[in-house]
Amino acid sequence: MDRGAYRERIAEVMAGSHGAKVGYPIELRELEVIRTEQVGSGLLRVTFGGPELAGFHSYVPDEHVRVVFPDTDGALRLPVKDGLSLEWPAPRPISREYTVRGYDADAGELDIDFALHPGGLASDWALAAEPGARIHIAGPPGGVVVPDSYDNYLFAGDITALPAMARWLERLPRTTRGWVFVEVTDASQEIGIDAPSGFEIQWLHRGDAAPGTGDLLEKAIRTVTVPDGQNVYAWVAGEAGQLRPIRKWIRSELGVGSKDCLIAGYWKHGIANFDGEE
C-alpha cells in the first residue's frame, strides 16, 4: 500500500460495518525524552519529542510501536528502511512493543505509558529515564481500524491494556455505550478515564494474586448481556493464557464474529518478549 492509499483505506473501513487491519509506512525514529509522569501507581508516562517525530502516523487507539534497546553487550543494532517497511537484522535486536497512548502533532509530542513491574527491561528504562535521554522507536505499522457506529463496545484487560482502552474511550463519540472491565492490583492503579457517559466502568481488584492468574476478568465479562437487536464490538487484551476462555465465551456465547472483535495476548508468563497472540 503506498503512502496515500492507507488514508483512503482508513476512511473506507470507518464508513463500513466491521473492523479491519490497515497498514501504513513504518519508520524508525530517534527520539528524546521530554518528561515523565506517574499515572496511577502502575503506569509511567514517558513523553517523547525531537525533530524526527515529524510525520509520525497515529490513527487508531491500539497502535503499537517498538522501543529498541541496546544488546546486552551495549551494542545498538537497528533495523534499516526497506521501502515502506523496515528490515530487521538477525539476530533480532532487543525491543519491546508498546501502545501509542497519545500523539500531538502540533506540540510534537508522543506519549507512551509503561506498565511498571520489577525486573522489566523497558520498565526499568522508563523509571531511570530523564529529560534528554534518547531512544529509537519503530512504527507503528498500522492498526485495526474500527467504525464508531456499533451499538455497544466491550473493553476489558489488565494494566498492560489500560493505555489502549483509555485512548479508545477518549476517542469514541460521546453517545457511545458499553462496558469496561480493568483488572488491577488495587485502587492505587485506577486512573481517570474520559469515557462517554453511557459506559459502565468496573475496576477489578486482584489483590495479592499474581498478574495474569485467576478468573476475575472472565467472570466480570460473563455478566455482559447485549440488548436484542443490537451489535457489539469487543476488544480484550492481557496475559495470553488468561484470555483463552474469554475468547471462547465472546465468540460462542456472546456471538461476536471475528470481524467484530480483537482479543490479543499482550504478554505471556515466562516469555520476556512475547510477540502477541490473537
What does this structure look like?
It is a single chain. This protein is α/β, with parallel strands linked by helices and 278 residues long. The chain has two domains: 5-143, Elongation Factor Tu (Ef-tu), domain 3 (Beta Barrel), CATH 2.40.30; 148-267, Nucleotide-binding domain of ferredoxin-NADP reductase (FNR) module (Rossmann fold), CATH 3.40.50. It has helices at residues 5-14, 121-128, 162-171, 216-221, 240-252; strands spanning 20-23, 28-39, 43-49, 64-68, 80-82, 85-87, 95-99, 102-104, 109-115, 134-138, 142-145, 152-157, 177-184, 198-205, 232-239, 261-267. Strands 7-4-10-2-3-9-8 form a seven-stranded antiparallel beta sheet. Strands 14-13-12-15-16 form a five-stranded parallel beta sheet. A two-stranded antiparallel sheet has the order 1-11. The relative contact order is 0.16.
SSE inventory with pairings:
Layout: H1 5-14, E1 20-23, E2 28-39, E3 43-49, E4 64-68, E5 80-82, E6 85-87, E7 95-99, E8 102-104, E9 109-115, H2 121-128, E10 134-138, E11 142-145, E12 152-157, H3 162-171, E13 177-184, E14 198-205, H4 216-221, E15 232-239, H5 240-252, E16 261-267
Parallel strand pairs: 12-13, 12-15, 13-14, 15-16
Antiparallel strand pairs: 1-11, 2-3, 2-10, 3-9, 4-7, 4-10, 5-6, 8-9
Protein name: Siderophore-interacting protein
Organism: Nocardia speluncae
Pfam family, one: SIP
